[in-house]
Amino acid sequence: MRRRTVTAGSLEEILQATAPAPAPEQAAAPPPAPAPREDHGLRTEFEFELPRGYVDEAGTVHRHGAMRLATARDELRPQIDLRVKENPAYLSVVLLSQVITRLGTVTDVHAGVVERMYATDVAFLQDFYRRVNSEGHTRAAVTCPHCDGGFEVDLSGGRLGES
Fold first, then answer.
1. N or C: which end of the chain has fewer CB within 10 A?
2. How many of the other CB atoms lie within 10 Å of CB of 24?
3. Separation of alpha carbons 106 and 108, rounded Å
4. How crowded is the C-beta side of 104, counted as CA atoms within 13 Å?
5. CA–CA distances in Å: residue 6 to residues 1, 13, 19
6. What's the CA gap between 86 and 93, in Å, rounded?
7. pLDDT digits over 113-163, tens only?
8. How many CA atoms lie within 13 A of 130 on its CB side?
9. Rounded to an integer, what distance in angstroms lies between the CA atom of residue 122 and that of residue 94?
């Protein structure tokens, strides 16, 4: 028995090459309209501002970014990463690199970017990740060191004291 090998650049090309030809009466009909997306009010991306900021190779400081909700795949993938197996502390670097969607003008956030961040920014992002994925919000309860008054701040907003 001979094997037939099909080579294509992508999955879409393979599907198009193997799809059956449409019937003549179906060819004239317009494609069905996509179903309207329902908005369930689920927020899946959260903006943040880093305390110090990421400095890229050109010396530009990037402070504003966005992080999406993590999926089960995001949390499982680092478990098979060799860097994490060699050094379990690297797990947070890999995990953060998967869920940060942008950082200033940087849209390709990979483990190397997270590695070059200041430790205070990585600690901020770890806490932000936990709040977003465990608690579902970005608010934190704080206490004034002078008057002992308690209030909430939104970690995704601007700098403290700004509106």
1. N
2. 7
3. 6
4. 13
5. 16, 10, 14
6. 13
7. 999 999 999 999 999 999 999 876 666 677 888 888 877 776 655 444 443
8. 7
9. 12
